[in-house]
């Protein structure tokens, strides 16, 4: 018979991010590693830094042994609620819109080119008059 496990959101897991209360998410499972922080070979700061995000990649990159993976099961308190993971919607921009933006920038620079040219011209005249006066 399958064992039912508690579901946690990423936000819930992220709230447990101190040395007294530390949860990490690895491979869709939530682990309460608070009691293991002092024993962790990589130090407690590694585990605390892994809170609030999916730490699967960091866990795999560290090259944990089979015994470490077996030890993890002792700290498993539930699973990550996959439905709570929101995928941000991307804004689709048509090529026409992108060219509209560039057209607006070109139009803006054409319209207001007089101001920097006038400032440069006035500066040149004032500088010339100042040097001529000396």
Helix content: 40-55%
**DSSP helical segment count:** 6
State the separation between the terminal residues, measured CA to CA. Answer: 99 Å
Number of strands: 4
Percentage of residues in DSSP E strands: 5-15%
Kindly report the average pLDDT value: 82
Strand count, sense and barrel status of the largest sheet are: 4 strands, mixed
Sheet with the most strands: spatial strand order: 1-4-3-2
Q: What overall geometry do the principal axes of the alpha carbons give?
A: elongated
Uncertain residue ranges: none
Rg, Cα atoms, Å? 30 Å
Describe the structure.
The chain is α+β, with helices and mostly antiparallel strands and 134 residues long. Helix content is 46%, strand content 11%. The protein is built from 6 helices and 4 strands, in the order βαββαααβαα. The protein has helices at residues 10-14, 44-49, 56-61, 66-72, 95-111, 114-133; strands at 7-8, 23-26, 29-32, 76-80. The chain has a 4-stranded mixed beta sheet. A hairpin with a 2-residue loop joins β2 (23-26) and β3.
Task: Give the SSE map.
Blueprint: E1 7-8, H1 10-14, E2 23-26, E3 29-32, H2 44-49, H3 56-61, H4 66-72, E4 76-80, H5 95-111, H6 114-133
Features:
single chain, 134 residues, alpha+beta, 4-stranded mixed β-sheet, 6 helices, 4 strands, 11% strand
